[in-house]
Amino acid sequence: PGVAAAPPAEEPGSGSLCAAPLRLARLPLARVKALVKADPDVSLASQEAVFVLARATELFVETIAKDAYVYAQQGKRKTLQRKDLDNAIEAIDEFAFLEGTLD
Amino acid sequence: MAERPEDLNLPNAVITRIIKEALPDGVNISKEARSAISRAASVFVLYATSCANNFAVKGKRKTLNAGDVLSAMEEMEFQRFIAPLKESLEVYRREQKGKKEARKDKDKKADSEEQDKSREEEEEEDERMEEEEQNDDEEVDN
């Protein structure tokens, strides 16, 4: 009622990157918010900001899993292992921020 | 207060599900790999938050907003996230608007000041959203 015509929210596969781009976050916003609040420099974060962060984190998880899987494939394995992740982090510039943080 | 930021983690079940859906059928993930990805996700949130906060500070704002997070993605070289994030944000905003309308109908009295305040914020964000739609810019700038 009164809302402008919007594309249907439940169209699977209509997005680009991921499985359900139009779905709301699966990661609980409360937990994401707890992480945001852990930063002493942050005073407040809007609900929208927390939501976008949650969605971004989901995209990140998808991305890093896929990138790590390439290494498992190279090793002819069907199980993703820790070393695949380490390889991906070392090889891919965008993951440089993770170096040294996972131990 | 005893928890370090790196110890705050995201629910394993959800992380696992996201990983499994990203990978082809029949692919498994070791416990160590899953746990490492989960930790990486937490680090990602912390790093993105810090990055986003810089934009808020630059904009002389005390509240981190969605635009700041999108700017952070650009900064962190995750530009390809920006389009799907904007889509999700659109849906989220519509849903929030719908919820608010339902609340307004039930709750015609202006008894909670908090609701009014958040409504003002939402209205500001709506105006900004309209501006963005007009500009059709990739970069979200306030």
Brief description of this entry?
Chain A: It is found in: Nucleus. The complex is a heterodimer of chains A (103) and B (142). Chain A has 3 helices and 2 strands, in the order αβαβα.
List the main descriptive attributes of the protein structure presented here:
heterodimer, A: 103 residues, mainly alpha, Histone, subunit A, 46% helix, B: 142 residues, 5 helices, disordered C terminus
Number of strands of chain A: 2
Which architecture of the domain at 29-98 in chain A would the CATH scheme give at its second level? Orthogonal Bundle
Largest interface (CB within 8 Å) is between: A-B, 66 and 69 residues
The general outline of chain B is: extended
Identify the overall geometry of chain A: elongated
Written account of the structure:
The complex is a heterodimer of chains A (103) and B (142). By secondary structure, chain A is mostly helical. Chain A has a domain at 29-98: Histone, subunit A (Orthogonal Bundle), CATH 1.10.20. Chain A has 3 helices and 2 strands, in the order H-E-H-E-H. Chain B has 2 domains: 1-77, Histone, subunit A (Orthogonal Bundle); 97-141. Chain B has 5 helices and 2 strands, in the order H-E-H-E-H-H-H. Chain B has helices at residues 12-22, 31-58, 66-75, 79-106, 113-135; strands at 28-29, 63-64. The model of chain B is unreliable at 126-142 (pLDDT under 50). At the A-B interface, helix 1, strand 1, helix 2, strand 2 and helix 3 of A face helix 1, strand 1, helix 2, strand 2 and helix 3 of B. Chain B: One of its GO terms (cellular component) is CHRAC.
Strands, helices and their partners?
The complex is a heterodimer of chains A (103) and B (142).
Chain A: H1 29-37, E1 44-45, H2 47-74, E2 79-80, H3 82-91
Chain B: H1 12-22, E1 28-29, H2 31-58, E2 63-64, H3 66-75, H4 79-106, H5 113-135
Helix pairs in contact in B: 1-2, 2-3, 3-4
